[in-house]
Amino acid sequence: MTAYSGWGRLPLFLAAVPLVLVFAVSDANDSDWRAGACAAMIGALVVAGLNLAVAAGLNGGEGGAWRGDHRAGGTAMQSFTPEFLSMAGAAGAAWTAQWITWPVAILLYVAGTVAYFVVPRWRERRVRNAVIARRRAFAAAKGWRFAGTVAGLTTRWDFGPFAMASTFAEVMNRPTAKLRGHYAGVSGSIDGFAFTIVDAFRPQPWAVFRTWSRTPVTVCAVHLSHSLPGIRVGIVPGRARGRVKVAVDCVAPAYAEAVVNGAAVEAMVEWSLESFEIQGCDVLTVLPSLTFDTDEDSEEDNVAVVESLIAVLSCLAVDQHAWRSGPARPLPIPHDAGLG
Question: Among 82, 108, 166, 260, which is least packed, fewest CB within 10 Å?
Fold first, then answer.
């Protein structure tokens, strides 16, 4: 975890600039609030650009991707850009009130704010509708249950580090790691194992415009009859002297050793499963959405991923009584849900 940086405080100081300009310029112009609002709008735009430029120098990654090395409050510096633009929009709305009425100026600001959040959701509708239609037909052909939306999964799965934050820097640097808007869920049983396949959108917590930077993903989960401690296992690309290197995130070394055994790793390699994790009573993996391209029929590929999770699950040498951490949770899609 990257140590907390003094650069992460920069947006806090920059946010004060538009507020100072409102009062300073207004007082310098015989309490002319219009001049103060105009100065605050220009100042907010300038500090937004300055903040973004500094963040680009510190957090610019390869291929134009943003990193989260310098962040405050759980977000990177570049993620404060929408807040600065919001301040510029509010000041601009106040400035235009000299030509239009205040209710209209407020309405324009509210409309712009709503559009910022609504337009990305409107753009996602095409993806959602295509996936829902295809997966409903697939579930009907298989005789499996289907739900257009699946509530409760946002709080059921958390993809942040399992280890608790132990320092102030780790607390401040921990990003939000939850999927949003779960939809097109299908649930059934394979070889006696209940499973769920559902699509969702993964926010990018360190993007410049988080609301506009959600990517579609597919979650394949197999459900257990009991809960186990959390663990995340991933195969590191490349091999060292013919050996497979595995990365593990877990707070209990003995438990990790029981889960990440040779048979489980061999099963991951055989089934081309790059990673999996256990969260409570769910064994799951998150993939780039196989159904994002509406011209590609990939539902069978999702089922193959579920089968790979079952294969790995059968290799785990975990003493269920010793490591049981709680009872099973209800299935995301109940048994009495309608068939596809």
Answer: 166
**How far, in Å, CA of 110 to CA of 126, rounded?**
26
Cα–Cα distances (Å) from 280 to 95, 108, 151, 164, 250, in that order, read 53, 46, 17, 16, 13
Contact 1, 160 (CB under 8 A): no
Its sign, for the CA torsion 238, 244, 245, 250, is: positive
Give the pLDDT of residue 311: 94
Q: How many whole angstroms separate alpha carbon 241 and alpha carbon 187?
A: 41
Using a 10 angstrom Cβ sphere, with 0-12 exposed, 13-18 middle and 19 or more buried, the burial of residue 94 is buried
Which helix (H) or strand (E) segment holds residue 194: the answer is strand 193-202
Task: Give the C-alpha separation, 170 to 256, whole Å.
Answer: 23
Q: What is the pLDDT of residues 296-306, one digit of tens each?
A: 557 889 999 99
Q: What is the pTM of this model?
A: 0.80
C-alpha to C-alpha distance for 302 and 308, rounded to whole angstroms = 10
Residues 68, 59: contact at Cβ < 8 Å?
yes
Neighbours of 302 (CB within 10 A): 23
Closest residue by Cα to residue 83 from 181, 177, 211:
211
Instruction: Record the tokens describing residue 268, joined without a space.
Output: 């991951």
Separation between Cα atoms, residue 315 and residue 197, nearest integer Å: 22
Rounded Cα–Cα distance for residues 95 and 101 (Å): 11
Under the banding of pLDDT at 50, 70 and 90, the label for residue 295 is: very low
Helix, coil or strand: residue 332? coil
Q: Specify the residue for token string 């595995």.
A: 246
pLDDT of 199 > 90? The answer is yes
Read off φ and ψ for residue 224, nearest 5 degrees. Answer: -95, 165
Q: What are phi and psi of 97, to 5 degrees?
A: -65, -10
